[in-house]
Structures are given as structure tokens and as C-alpha cells.
Amino acid sequence: MIKLIIVDDEKSTREGLAQFIPWNSLDVSRVECAGSGDEALRLAEQIRPDIILSDIKMPGMNGIEFAVLVKAILPDCKFIFLSGYADKEYLKSAIQLRAINYLEKPVNREEVKRAVSLAVRAVREEQVKNAENNAILKEKLALDMAGMRTPLPDILQRLQQMNKDISSYGNVITAIIKIDIQTEPSTDIEHNHKGLIYKAIDLVFDNPVMYHLAGFKDNQHIVIHFYGKGVSHRDFPPTIISSLKKTIEELASVKVDLFMGIGIKVDGVKQVRESYRTAALALQKQFFIGANQMVIYEDRVDNGKTYRLDAVVIKQFVDCLSECDKDKTLRFIVHMHDEIRKHTELPIKQVKDIFCSMLLELNTFATGYNIDLFEKQEQVYFWDIITSMSSLTEIQNYMVDRILVVFDNIQSKNSIGQNVFMIMQVIQEHYHDDHLTINMLAQHLFLTPTYLCMIFKKKTGKTINQYITEVRIEKAKEFLKEERVKLLEISRKVGYQSPNHFTKIFKKMTGMNPSDYRERHYL
């Protein structure tokens, strides 16, 4: 809403301007008139205009004197001067006051419209700039309140300057929100969605008795200080996190996962850092209970019933493996996950250490059956795998997946025989080699080609060459999902040097050529 005052001692001039200029089309919402500098000054103090259209030569206080007084209280107010005199001194003063324009009377309506449009544009640009600067100052203040480096008197002074004297509002509760953009793994939130996330926070936490001050700590964490005379943990119902998630997703058109850690209630800004510290502790609970949850910090009394994570747990896991009982091993992992979730006081590093040790034991068990836990081309460090996981459930799912890989391979070996299993494994590893032949397989496995073909056909009902073709075509289908990978490159990736031969085989196996298959299934 842009407000404007017309100041002129001639009634016909001010009423004519007020009546015959299309103010709404110029984005001016409110127009007031004054017949003197004194009257206009009182009006300016009352409505705080964005633009003033003022005569210079007036009885009593002239337009320049009036402008000087207005600029003292409204430094951003834009002036357009009107004058029936081409006075160099007036013009010089107008320039010093940074007037938008200086129009000579009798005024031309089009000139006034152009001058007002120019002033409106300047006001809008300044509003945007001020809003951006204010947002930056608020964000920095929110972070400094949570940090330890900024002296408290400095923070109190800045709060007063921003009309956010938290000390007069009573209690403060600090929260930290962790945000993960699901649809864009490498999204830079700060540049892409920051403003919209702030808007979502303002909408969801709009409360007449609870105010907030927020700032991005980094690309994934937002610090919010809530303050108000009656603020309490009751102001944070469990549904608040789902409401915030929905609002962010609607405004930013992305899928997000959130987790909110809420600190203790403290009395005023002097203790806000303690609320922040406890919010950070509450945030760590995400590892145990998963995303899209909210945790309010509470001091837990040690009742001596801490869940033990030690060598006994590892031995129990090894015993399950030794019995070669897939279901029992899986039940053990699920039970362990459920028990740890009940003990969120456990150090996260300790939990990850125990799962890393169990992964090592699983790898040792698999090696005994000549089974690779990972693809041979992968360079795997168990600790890196577990450390990179952000939740207990993610670790559980990974362990379950690896256990299934091991036991499914054991079952395959038992059902088709060791030699046939080895043939399949070598083909899976070397399908991209255009020199993959029965003779090469025989040399690799120290068996004769005739025996190799006989046992494979007997156990699987198909020839080795048929199986090689099936593997290559299935791998080709996976590569076709990537639109940027050319058909020539896919052909070579699956062991065919001739693209024409690859296309012929692919069509024979699937009923369509590779480009048609890609278009139908993936584009």
C-alpha cells in the first residue's frame, strides 16, 4: 500500500490533482491533501506517506523547509516538487533533498503521471531492498542469540533496534528444525527455497501471543526462537510438524522430511543459549525415531536399565549366522532395532560401532561360502557405509538387505549346485566383456567346456549362451533408463561391439528395438 500527500496552498491545484490523476493505476492506494506546510507536516506524522507531491512557494513554511522536516522523520519519503518559478536556488535545494522530479506549473497531467510512476518504482525497489536487509539482520540476530561469541549487551541492543525486545515478552523456547529436500539431493536450500521456507514458518507459527525469530544455521538446519508471555511447550502440538511439512511442500513444490528438536523454556534472552543447547540434544533423537517427528527435550533420570551394546550382542548375532537360520537372523536385527529405539540416551557413535562390527561378521560369514557381500568393483569400507546413514531404521534396512543377499545366495548354491552358481556369478561379473565365451568360463573355473555346458543345462534348463544373452539384455534395460546414455555406448557396456547386432538380439528378446523400449518404458 503506497500512500501519497498532495501539498499546495491553491485549492484548485490540489483538488484537481487528487481528482484527475488515475492513482490506482499508478499503484497509489491512498491520497490525502493539505493546504499548507504545517498541516502537511501533521498529516505526514500521522499517515507516514511514501511519496509527497508538494508546491514549493507557499505562505508560511515553504516546500523546501517542509521537506527538510519530513526527511528528518521519514528519510525514505520521495518528493516531487511543483513550482511556478524557475528558481535556481529552489532547484538546487530540491536536488540536495534528492527529489524524484521538479515540475513547473501549470502542471501537465502526463508529466505528473510519469513522475509519480518513477517515485512508485523507487519506493517498491527500496521496500524490496529493506525487506532483504531486514531478513538478513533477523537471521544473523537469531543465530547470534544461539551462539556463544556475541556479548549479551550487544544482542539486547540489536533486539531493541529491531523492535523485538524479547526481555519484555517473558519466556523463550528455542527449536532447531532439520530439513531434507527429498526430490533434490544436492539442493542448495539457501538459494532455491529459503524465502518460501521462511514464509511457511510464518504461516504455521502465526500466533497472536507467541512471536518468533528464525535463521538458517546452515543448508539443513533452521534455528527458531519462540517468545511470548504465555509461551510454553503446549504451543507445540504433535500435528505442528506435519502442518509445516505440508505448507513447505505446497509453497516450494518439493518433497521434504523434517525433524524438530525443542529446547527447554527459559526466562528471557539471557538464558536462551541453554534452550538452544537442549534443542540440539533433542534434535539428536531423529537418529532413533526417524523423520517427520518432533521431540521436546526432557531430563531423563538414569534408572540403571540402559540397553547394553557390547560383545555379547555381537556373539548373539554370530550364533544366529552360525545356525544358518535366515529368519532367526532377521528377527534378531529387528528386535535389536526396536530395543535401541527405546533407549535414545545411547550415544549414536556407539550404536553405529556395534552395527559396523556386525557387518564385518556378516562379511566373514559370507566369505566362508565364497559369497561377495558387495559388488567386486566396489571399494567398500564398512565404517563409511554405516557412518553415512542418518537413522537407526536406515541401518536396520541395510543390514536386512545384506543378510537377505547372503542367505539368498546360499540358497541358490544349494539348489543349483556350487559349480552352476559359480558360472552364473562369473557371467554376472563379466557380461560386459565381448570376449566372454564358454572356453573363457571353463578356464576361469578349471572345468572342461563340455562338462560346464552339461551341468548348466541340466540344472537350469537353458544353455550358457542363452543365460549370457539374458543377463546382457537385462543389464541393457537398466542402462536404457538413463536418457543421456547413447545406444552405441549401451551396446558396448553389455558386451556387443556391433550396435546392429545388439539391436537385433534386443528385439528378438523383447519384441522391440532399444529406442522404442526406452520411449515406451522410461520417457
TrEMBL record:
Top-rank lineage group of the source organism: Bacteria
GO biological process: phosphorelay signal transduction system
Domain HTH araC/xylS-type: 421-520
Gene3D superfamilies in UniProt: 3.40.50.2300, Homeodomain-like (1.10.10.60)
Keyword presence, Nucleotide-binding: no
Keywords for this protein: Cytoplasm, DNA-binding, Phosphoprotein, Transcription, Transcription regulation, Two-component regulatory system
Every Response regulatory domain range: 3-120
Modified residues (4-aspartylphosphate): D55
Cellular component GO terms held in the UniProt record: cytoplasm
GO molecular function, one term: DNA-binding transcription factor activity
Subcellular location: Cytoplasm
Protein name as catalogued: DNA-binding response regulator
